[in-house]
Amino acid sequence: MRRHATVWVDASSKAGPLDRRVFGQFIEHLGRCIYGGIWVGENSPIPNLRGYRFDVLEAVKRISPPLTRWPGGNFSSAYHWMDGIGPRLHRPRKFELAWEGVEPNEFGTVEFIEWCRLVGTEPFIVVNAGSGTPEEAAAWVEYCNSRGDTYYSSLRKRDGWSEPFNVKLWGVGNELYGRWQVGFCIDGAECARRTIEFVNLMRRVDKSIEIVGCGIDNDPEWNIDMIKIAGNYIDYLSVHTYVFCPKKHEDLIAAALQIERNLTSIYKTVEATCRKFGVKRIRLAFDEWNVWYKEAVPPMHVQFTSMRDAVFTGLVLIKLQKISRMVPIACFAQTVNVLPLISTGDDERMVLSPQYYVYELFAPNVGRQVAWTGVVGPTLYSEEAEENVQAVDAVASCDGNKMYVHIVNGSQDEAVDCSIRVAGFDFKSVKHRYLAGSTPDDRNTFEEPGKVVPRDSEKVESRNGEIILSLPACSVHLLTLTR
Ligand code: AHR
Questions:
Q1: Which of 46, 271, 292, 466 lies in the 20 to 30 Å Cα band around 60?
Q2: How far is the CA of 74 from the centre of ligand 1 (A)?
Q3: Final residue of a structural domain among 342, 362, 382
Q4: Which whole number is the average pLDDT over 105-128?
Q5: Distances (CA, A) of 415 to 376, 433, 476
């Protein structure tokens, strides 16, 4: 017997605005993310636009990331930004302390800003709060944002950019709680004091910048100290979560729900701490997340994820849309070649993962308002989480005469007949695009790059505000309704 799910959408009952920044990306000087992924240099035989790898640039444009975090990750904790400015030929080739590699510094601030402009994404820069100083961070803000006739601003003008970059979002440090981090902190209180020293100088240069401070996904005390001591200096608290080597399919599906619960619980702690200590509102920046398999080892971090991971990605993106009031920023780790959405060869080959196609279905296709969405359907049991979780999840958002509904069937081997009942939105036409493999393990590789690609349904059955779809096992869907 086939399973059945019902999705209810009520457009007249708004669940709040949707912050598109939840579809952000993250690129780091690590493995072949920047060098070989984003950047090949002007003299490369690989087709490029002023040094930016052309196929990757076009692919990233198609997932329209609202913001992009750079230069790390761990890399940022040992990065001295002045090594990456000025004429490229004169930049130092340095031993890189965070990943113990070599950094040629061919790609620096100007290259990142130009990348952001080409893609149409907002820059989000993480300063070195590991081995760097507050003064160095403030000088970076001046280089990027100052119009004045002062030294660092004049360096930007020398580099060919008379107008300020106006970088609004700045991270102070990365994972400073970790012993693997250059310049880590012993506890949240130390991190909070360090954050204050940095922000104090950075904001003297530009009062309008927004700050992401270092939080953690599994230590409430750290987060409480950050808010209590440095709360009035930051706007967002960063949280990272990687799902390491999930044992079973059901555990990966349950991990998406755990992420949502954990983010909500961290936000509640932050909110309560703000209230208790008279701190203004602080929200979360989920600025690194992904699934991480054992083959993805440093420094390359290569993995080719499957349709199963695409389903996990779709579920997380559904949940992020629902909680963007609390978590308005999220960045997928990472865009190219490192735990990647996009993989490139040393030659002209490029592979788009099923996870990439989920971003293509989701990020450009959302409205500004989330509509109330409820789902009743089959469940599956995760041994790791020791609970039943919903196999089908969905979210809808609206914009003017459009409604977008994203649906995921997380069931490993069962197709689900799904009826989508829409109230408060009188639609005239429906389009359906979806991603499914023949098994959850299907993935795209250099040998078989087109194994899993999105498809359009030729015809969608709908009557009286009800749409009927068959959701193949392990599949991700986009419905576009027009009134
Ligand atoms: O994304 C790879 C690494 O994972 C990042 O550099 C670090 O922040 C995290 O631990």
A1: 292
A2: 6
A3: 362
A4: 98
A5: 15, 16, 12
